[in-house]
Backbone:
């Protein structure tokens, strides 16, 4: 029998107990134990010992009391806390500026990081995203190649049948914006896809309520949550009926969560595939097809087997035109950044924007940090005094750095609060700037990591700072020169900050310049005061009646129809064209329009004439081409050249004719893209021009819209009235660029603000350090102007340094952005001179306050000794 | 360099300040018991002996941890001071912390006892009646 107290209880005691108290407590407990062992026996002694150990487990025995060391983090660190808070209260302005600067930079950086993460995590929310591939196509029309996002309808089934690696497929068909009716209300702004029944097997979209397999069978519709609440308010949408077009009634089978912002498929509703009858032959190149590979299968194996599989169908696909067809596979997560395809519904990102944004994120984190450090260093005097007082009271010199550390902890607390505040603010701002970010992105490890990394950097830099400051502590003893040791670092900091500002200013100057270029560039047509009305009717006669009636409205100057709607990819058809190499078949974008159209848009004719009702042959056999087309076909003199087409399979729509005029290039697409060749002919029964362009009086366009709507209603009672200004629509093509511009505008303000604060603080320090020097100079006969110059010289040095650092960055970053435009401005000297001038003004203006203070100093005040 | 003299001085000031913040010189019933017991045991007063003394004298069931707690508090109030004794045999070589009454403790004890006696004398049936 071992006469020892239970060892686990003993271990427990020595674990929780304050080491300083352990010996006496354990000693007493053991003494009692052995006494009880003698008197009462082992069992009782063990029990009582455990009871004692438990009773000893109280806070006063657990807590460890540290030595009292001023400035240390242990024991009495609340003293430091108190000092820091008091210091913050005393210098409210500096504290606010510090905290605000840091948090606004951090918040902005985080927001941008969120945006970046959002861009890079496109479609990764699907559980199987690594195995989902989109099938796209490359069609080779002899002389040129076109990439399409769409493929023939039966191709998915063929993959499942013939390639063992493919588990299943799903097809999507873009239904544009159909009319949906709910209890007499008509809606026509919803993006709708038809989807195969196994859509939800491939893609992960959360079904909130309803059938887990909602798309099997005809006449089914799945709504997103926001659409369901728009249609039915708070009621449960499942089971309700929605009308589609004129004669279909769809049953709502499920409601899904809204499509996340980082999904390349954006839709409000899905209709089951069988609802709409379609030609599902191989020649119908119209569906978006996604395949799911079996787990472990590689896409390369599928790629290998595809050519042999496609052999059997190739003939069917290219039946209507002369060319070859190939398939391409892209992983669903790569779609966002891959090069744009024809007829793609996916929202494409631009990786060059991403690089720029990445640079801006880094920039902002650095700016925030530097600014904070700068302002902290500016408080050196206060720190030196505090450390001095602590030392007098016996503080440890190693502990003094911790004063700053505690200061930082307090700041961090405020910063975290402020960041939350600013983030929620900028969150709204982002919505306003139409930057779409998925909410979950902010919880992603990258953003969190960035945040943590920033705080870590801040702490590290604070430690460094803390090591500098005690050494400068001699300041307290009157040895002011020591402060200058921290000076080169600060110079660098301010110079870096200034170069950030320079970069921001330069980029914004360049962006604004490019936007002016876009606005003023010769689009080849006049977009002002033109209203477009989209008519969803293919009835030639009623559209014609409508246009004629519109002409009678006062204030309407001209009405024309066209098949073209800006922002939508041009329809391309095969034409037989007389080129310099003889007759060739080419796929060319085309457009049909009424007689007035080119006049309405003020498209100038380079050669030949426009369409004229007096020339009877124009209606059936005249074509107008643009300059790009004339170049493409190698025509010196285009007039009279033969064009036959378009080839569609039906004879009525086929025209044989010749070119009567060459129009100046008019660019409906954004300047990101090259101007494409275009063939224009007159519309008739077969070629309906169902976008009506209305040129109005400049001052009355608003009230005219109401009258246009009345006219529209009298013609078509239940069709949606869908109108837009042409110039607005045109500028919408640059939405992404506007996004970038607004990000930079906000960034510009923040960066100028922070660097101004930096300059201000350093000039304040400079003037205190050099006060005596200035006094002596003044006595020796310097006038205030000279002193001001001496003061400003330092900042001019900063500026020169900043210029050297920032110019290469400006050149590189702006080049990246400008490259995304086919037509863009070239960088010139002004893009560097203007930012420098602005930065110069800011630098001088912010340093002037203290500069003047120094220049107007009374030498007696600074030179007197006690 | 650590300046120990200054450090101690600051420590002392600190102790004074913390004392000022505490309840004051009021003694609880159990505190009084422990203080009396510690005083009576003179140089043999440590946790276990005080506990046994109280058990013996009052017959109450007292837990050692409660005694420790009160001792700590009394030391903080400045009524007892303590020092570690030499190594011992009976408790695995662990040292005992011995408590000694301070002047302040003695004064407080005197005062409380005096007060109690004063009050006790006022009770009619038991008081001596000087004629």
Residues:
């Amino acid at each position: 029998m071992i006469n020892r107290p239970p060892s686990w209880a003993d271990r427990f005691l020595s674990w929780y107990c304050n080491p300083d108290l352990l010996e006496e407590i354990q000693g007493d407990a053991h003494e009692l134990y052995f006494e009880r062992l003698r008197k009462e026996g082992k069992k009782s002694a063990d029990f009582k010992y455990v009871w004692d150990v438990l009773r000893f487990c109280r806070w006063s025995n657990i807590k460890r009391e540290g030595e009292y060391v001023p400035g240390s983090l242990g024991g009495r660190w609340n003293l430091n806390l108190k000092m820091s808070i008091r210091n913050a209260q005393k210098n409210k302005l500096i504290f606010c500026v510090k905290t605000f600067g840091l948090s606004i930079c951090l918040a902005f950086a985080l927001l941008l990081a969120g945006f970046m993460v959002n861009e890079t995590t496109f479609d990764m929310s699907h559980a199987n995203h690594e195995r989902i591939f989109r099938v796209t196509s490359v069609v080779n029309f002899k002389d040129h190649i076109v990439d399409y996002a769409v493929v023939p309808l039966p191709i998915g089934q063929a993959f499942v049948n013939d390639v063992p690696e493919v588990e299943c497929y799903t097809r999507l068909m873009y239904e544009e914006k159909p009319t949906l009716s709910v209890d007499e209300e008509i809606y026509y702004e919803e993006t709708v896809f038809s989807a195969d029944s196994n859509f939800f097997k491939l893609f992960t979209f959360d079904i909130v309520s309803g059938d887990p397999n909602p798309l099997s069978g005809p006449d089914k519709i799945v709504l997103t949550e926001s659409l369901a609440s728009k249609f039915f308010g708070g009621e449960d949408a499942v089971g309700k009926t929605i009308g589609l077009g004129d004669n279909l009634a769809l049953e709502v089978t499920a409601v899904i969560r809204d499509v996340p912002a980082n999904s390349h498929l954006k839709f409000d509703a899905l209709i089951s595939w069988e609802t709409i009858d379609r030609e599902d032959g191989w020649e119908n190149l119209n569906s978006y097809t996604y395949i799911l590979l079996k787990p472990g299968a590689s896409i390369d194996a599928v790629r290998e087997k595809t050519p042999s599989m496609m052999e059997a169908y190739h003939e069917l696909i290219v039946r209507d035109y002369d060319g070859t067809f190939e398939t391409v596979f892209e992983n669903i997560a790569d779609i966002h950044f891959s090069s744009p395809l024809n007829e793609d519904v996916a929202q494409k990102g631009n990786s060059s924007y991403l690089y720029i944004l990445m640079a801006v994120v880094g920039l902002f984190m650095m700016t925030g940090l530097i600014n904070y450090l700068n302002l902290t260093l500016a408080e050196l005097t206060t720190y030196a005094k505090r450390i001095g007082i602590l030392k007098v009271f016996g503080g440890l010199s190693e502990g003094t750095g911790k004063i700053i550390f505690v200061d930082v902890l307090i700041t961090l607390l405020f910063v975290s609060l402020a960041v939350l505040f600013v983030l929620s603010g900028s969150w709204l701002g982002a919505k306003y700037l139409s930057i779409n970010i998925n909410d979950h992105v902010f919880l992603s490890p990258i953003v969190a990591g960035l945040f943590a990394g920033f705080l870590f950097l801040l702490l590290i830099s604070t430690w460094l700072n803390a090591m500098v400051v005690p050494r400068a502590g001699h300041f307290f003893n009157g040895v002011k020169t020591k402060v200058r040791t921290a000076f080169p670092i600060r110079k660098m900091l301010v110079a870096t900050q200034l170069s950030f500002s320079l970069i921001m200013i330069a980029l914004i100057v360049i962006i604004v310049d490019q936007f002016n270029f876009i606005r003023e560039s010769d689009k080849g047509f006049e977009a002002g005061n033109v209203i477009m009305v989209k008519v969803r009717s293919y009835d030639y006669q009623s559209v014609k009646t409508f246009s004629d009636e519109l002409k009678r409205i006062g204030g309407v100057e001209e009405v024309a129809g066209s098949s073209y709607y800006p922002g939508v990819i041009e329809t391309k058809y095969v034409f037989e064209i007389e080129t310099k190499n003889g007759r060739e078949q080419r796929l060319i974008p085309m457009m049909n329009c009424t007689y007035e159209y080119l006049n309405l848009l003020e498209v100038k004719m380079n050669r030949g004439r426009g369409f004229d009702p007096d020339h009877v042959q124009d209606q059936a056999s005249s074509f107008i081409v643009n300059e790009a087309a004339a170049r493409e076909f190698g025509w010196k003199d285009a007039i009279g050249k033969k064009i036959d087409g378009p080839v569609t399979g039906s004879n009525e729509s086929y025209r044989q004719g010749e070119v009567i005029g060459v129009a100046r290039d008019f660019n409906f697409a954004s300047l990101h893209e090259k101007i494409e060749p275009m063939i224009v002919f007159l519309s008739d029964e077969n070629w309906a021009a169902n976008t009506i362009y209305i040129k109005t009086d400049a001052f009355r366009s608003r009230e005219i819209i109401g009258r246009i709507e009345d006219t529209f209603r009298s013609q078509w009672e239940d069709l949606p009235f869908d109108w837009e200004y042409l110039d607005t629509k045109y500028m919408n093509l640059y939405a992404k660029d506007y996004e970038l511009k607004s990000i930079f505008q906000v960034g510009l303000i923040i960066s100028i603000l922070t660097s101004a604060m930096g300059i201000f603080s350093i000039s304040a320090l400079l003037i205190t350090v050099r006060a005596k020097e200035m006094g002596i100079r003044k006595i020796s006969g310097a006038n205030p102007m000279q002193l001001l110059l001496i003061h400003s010289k330092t900042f001019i040095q900063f500026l020169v340094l900043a210029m050297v650092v920032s110019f290469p960055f400006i050149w590189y970053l702006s080049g990246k952005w400008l490259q995304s435009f086919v037509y863009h401005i070239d960088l010139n000297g002004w893009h560097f001179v203007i930012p420098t001038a602005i930065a110069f003004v800011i630098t001088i203006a912010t340093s002037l306050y203290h500069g003047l203070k120094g220049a107007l100093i009374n030498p007696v005040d600074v030179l007197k000794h006690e | 360099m650590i300046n120990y003299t200054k450090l101690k001085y600051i420590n002392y000031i600190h102790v004074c300040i913390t004392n000022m913040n505490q309840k004051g010189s009021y003694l609880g019933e159990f505190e009084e018991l422990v203080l009396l017991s510690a005083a009576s045991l003179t140089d043999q007063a440590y946790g276990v002996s005080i506990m046994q003394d109280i058990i013996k004298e009052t017959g109450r069931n007292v837990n050692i941890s409660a005694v420790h707690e009160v001792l700590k508090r009394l030391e903080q109030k400045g009524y007892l001071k303590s020092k570690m004794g030499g190594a011992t045999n009976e408790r695995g070589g662990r040292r005992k912390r011995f408590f000694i009454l301070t002047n302040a403790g003695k004064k407080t004890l005197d005062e409380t006892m005096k007060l109690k006696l004063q009050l006790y004398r006022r009770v009619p049936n038991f008081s001596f009646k000087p004629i």
Chain A has 26 helices and 25 strands.
